[in-house]
Design a protein that fits this description.
By secondary structure, this protein is α/β, with parallel strands linked by helices. The protein has helices spanning about 35, 90-110, 115-120, 130-135, 145-165, 185-210, 220-230, 280-295, 305-310, and strands spanning about 10, 20-25, 55-60, 70, 125-130, 215, 245, 265, 300. It has nine helices and nine strands. The longest helix is centred in the middle third of the chain and has 24 residues, at about 185-210.
Length: about 300
Amino acid sequence: MSATSVVGALLIQGASRSQPYLTLGTQNSDIGGFVAGFGLDFGPPHGRESLGIGYLSPYLESLEPNFTHGANFAVSGSSTLPRLLPFSLSLQLLQFLRFRARSIDQLSKGYKNVLGEEEFVNALYTIDTGQNDLSTSFFSFPCDQVIQNIPSFIFEIKDAIQVMAIGLLASESGYIELDRYGCIKHLNEAAKAFNHQLRLLCIQLRSELKNAVIVYVDIYGIKYHFIANTPYYGFKNPFLACCGLGGPPYNYNPNITCGQAGFNVCEKGSKFISWDGVHYTEAANQFFAYKILSFKYSRPPIKFDYFCNT
């Protein structure tokens, strides 16, 4: 099981409930970018995200988007590298820059449902990326080489943050070394190495960007604590997928995944952590959100309310 940084670097500038929210990232933050970008139709629900400031529209949504409250550039499956590959972090960054320029220009011409320059300055920004870089790298490279590549991932995140104005679940099988909780050791070692360098980047950027508040959120710590204490929180086997094929211990078959012919679905998804062997259940995500908002895993430990009241 590998738990990487989901929010990673949470970078905020004086956001309040009346100010917009803009996010770049992967499947953890995607609210419809994937289906819009690839012309798919999964059916409802998608395209919804709210932090008490109104629903957001995916940047790639072409039918009646409303960017009054911000925009979501995240697309499932994206990564930091290779650059400019749909829909990598660098490509999302280019989309954001175009969106900002066009939005300010359109607002000056009387258009509605877009953002002005002051709103971009005071917006809440989040970047959620890194996990796909690690997970896909393990299919091609040994652990030591994956760790050697981490600085290149971190550089892309640093570049995105600077330009933007501030700008564990495993599906592997076979003989592998596990820790005492059943997590795959070499994957978590890489995740910890990635997060260590990301934390150092946040420290560096705080000294360079004096007018920004940069908060590092330890999502790895949240998820690892959750997995290690599954019974305490009333959940079942943390590695058993609710939707999949194969039964215990994983109920995961890479050739017959959730939604394909032959799959099965558990009756009580609220007792499961893994939805399909790759993604988390809604109940698990609720736990993660609660821990994130508790600020106990944030460095510095700033309460989320601070950003809404500043």
